Amino acid sequence: MSAPTLSTGKATRPRHGQPRTARPDSAREEFVRALRRNLSAHGFLIGAVLCFSFFSWYPMVREFILAFQKNENGRTTWAGWSNLSRVVNDPAFWQAWRNTLLFTGLALLLGFAVPFVVAVVLNEFRHGQGYLRLLVYLPVMLPPVASVLLFKYFYDPGYGLFNRILEVFHLPAQQWLQSTDTAMLSVVIAATWMNMGGATLIYLAALQSIPGELYEAAELDGAGLLRKVWHVTVPQTRLILSLLLLMQIIATMQVFTEPFLLTNGAGPEGSTTTVVYLIYQYAFNFNNYGSAAALGLVLLVVLAGFSAVYVRLSRTSED
Amino acid sequence: MASNTFVSRRRAPARRTAERRAAAPERQRTLISPAQLARPRGRAVYWTVFALVTVLFTVAFLGPLYWMVTGGLKTTQEAVQSPPTLFPTSVHTENYSRAWTVMDLSRLLFNTLYYAFGALACQLLFDVTAAYSLSRLRPVFGKAILGMMLATLMIPATVLVVPQYLTVLDMPIVQRNLIDSPWVIWLPSVTNAFNIFLLKRFFDSIPRELLDAAAIDGASPLRTLRSVVLPISRPILGVVSIFAVVGVWKDFLWPMLTLPDPGGQTLNVGIYSLANGVPENVLIAALTIASVPTLIVFLVFQRNIMSGLTAGGLKG
Hints:
The structure holds two protein chains of two kinds. By secondary structure, chain A is an all-alpha fold. Chain A folds into two domains: 43-79, no CATH class; 82-318, MetI-like fold (Orthogonal Bundle). In chain A, strand 1 (69-72) and strand 2 form a beta hairpin. Chain A has helices spanning 26-67, 82-89, 91-111, 113-124, 129-141, 144-155, 161-168, 183-207, 212-220, 225-236, 238-252, 257-263, 275-285, 289-318, and strands at residues 69-72, 75-78. Chain B folds into three domains: 1-29; 30-101, no CATH class; 104-277, Orthogonal Bundle (MetI-like fold). The longest helix of chain B is centred in the middle third of the chain and has 33 residues, at 105-137. Chains A and B meet through helix 1, helix 4, helix 5, helix 6 and helix 7 of A and helix 1, helix 3, helix 6, helix 7 and helix 8 of B.
């Protein structure tokens, strides 16, 4: 009798070949049953829905409201577009965007291309794949503070390991995190080391689904190693490649922890100030939530473009 | 979303056979042809590249960890001497005990575990029931609720930090300040739409007949969830649990903002805030201690973690 609990709301269909009886109270019974079913279903949902309301949906709305409000002498008033125009006219705004784009560009160069090459090479190995996979993914599991402070120790121009390695190879010593030229690159190297494992493993899984016949066919056509990579491997993994590219763009444009821990956020002459760090500064150093929310809105709009492409791409992958 | 379920269900066994084939002597054909590898020159190139990559990877990924463990064994002078030494000239294990007491690592470790497993419990309780309801009980507005949950994946998490922080300062309706309370970590962790999506996709794939049979036997939805759905969902629950614990373990910005009390800080935040006050060798020892639990978890659960990563690889 309780079978309709599991059906999709079309509980009116008679079951077990029973004729549709015209009992007077059947409509009411039906209604009560649907009500009970919905009550229990919503009972299961309520915890998550409350959490989402408080910690996701309401803050989302609040973000928009905050961006157009200002707080003066304890009184909150509407500010119109003034928050946005103040944020955009802040010289730090353009510097933060330049730095963020530099980080994203460098991080993609290292964090997108390197894992792909690594995955292609690893996939050829007949031995030790498990060990190598384990190694690549190891840093992903470390607490970020451990990896970041360790790299900070390596980057020290005086006693750091990296300058010692350069010295062994007769290369000039670097100032790493303390110079405007190399600070961002140093952050990117550390971030890549910490995070490349995930992308590598996803590529490896994608590579293993390429049918071997395609390579055989390419060989019959006389394709060399690089042409096989370019004409078989890349097209076969194109979807995963583009999805991961978008995911990494979205993730790297929100970078915060690595520069915050490595260079205290700003870095030499603000050379590692990222957009999210600027939001952090507005909100938690200057208590200017309006500007923080306005800048957040700008970031949201920029990233929404990438998210939309991502959603569209992953939809096509489902068809 | 429904078609996605189908694709993933179809693809999963294929991936497994690919793995099995990789383990077997005759593995799936890849970029380099077996004939080419069988030739003496091919074999020489293969082993050279293999040796190079193995050495390079070991140095690149285990090297820093070696430096961390041994750095914690050096004296303060040796830890900051130039040029650095590859082996500690004398072994000072007391750095580790000093790090343990000076930075109060036992408390930080306990706090982090407390937050991580509390978050895990909340996620298992609320996300599993929500996914079950959306997948199987299908209440009115269920689709809309799921859509709104998935929409949160589109909002960059860092943008929400400021309004979220203001919200927990003074929770609407209940008028509570959650700062420095464990709930400030536990409850927001439930809003993990990706986990709900993974769970729902798995529940969708459970054969209908199984649940109908339970219903005909008179099982309530709760009973069906407990006795039928959960036992067969163990793999996905494992994946979700690992993500939940690792997520809290690795988080930095949110616990830094919401747990300012030094007595309630997480490992990440606690070590960061004390980093400038201790000598370099003690700090390195502390980093080693902080890394050990995650490394153990990783080595024990590596298979689940890696399969979970590729199952939910395309996050978003």
